[in-house]
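Human: If only I could read backbone structure tokens as easily as an amino acid sequence. Take your time, and here it is.
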Amino acid sequence: MKAILITSCALVTLAGTAFAQTSPSGTVSDQDYMKRVMTAAPSQIVADATVVRMNGSTMETLKKGTNEWTCMEANGVPMCLDPNAMEWAHAWQTHGPAIDKTGFIYMLAGDTGASNTDPWAKGQTADNHWVQTGSHVMIVGAAAKAMPGYPRTADADPTKPYVMWPGSPYEHLMIPVK
């Protein structure tokens, strides 16, 4: 599990296309990084979470947590993932089989956008249905596929819950919270 966690963190942090497209300018101190990561989830989650950061090509643990959450920035966007969401992120980034577990991701600081049709888009194009969802949480994995009643269209309304990447093995429920 530790190898999946580290690999998933590295992949999510390096790729981050589902969560963000731009990197912050310059290097921030560990203290400033921690402050930004603390905006990803409710304080009771972040306070006891493991916080990781990419340091070159290696994953550095800035704080070892006591709960099972992992918090980080991916291309400048803070997020906290439970263990199942980490597995889902690993499957998505490696184009592996979708997991049969349900995971949860907090992104309360919002995002900078992603394609709603292409899980691996590197940037906005005229036809990849770019969407920016602001403060939200995500339900990933098996449960998202079994939740009827949410829009599964390419042109999502990010002010309401919707399914991102509909029809793909990595479709997941986006739930705006502000």
Q: What stands out?
A: Confidence is low (pLDDT under 50) at residues 1-25. The chain is about 25% helix and 25% strand. The two ends are 33 Å apart (CA to CA). Helices lie at 2-15, 30-37, 43-46, 83-93, 142-145.
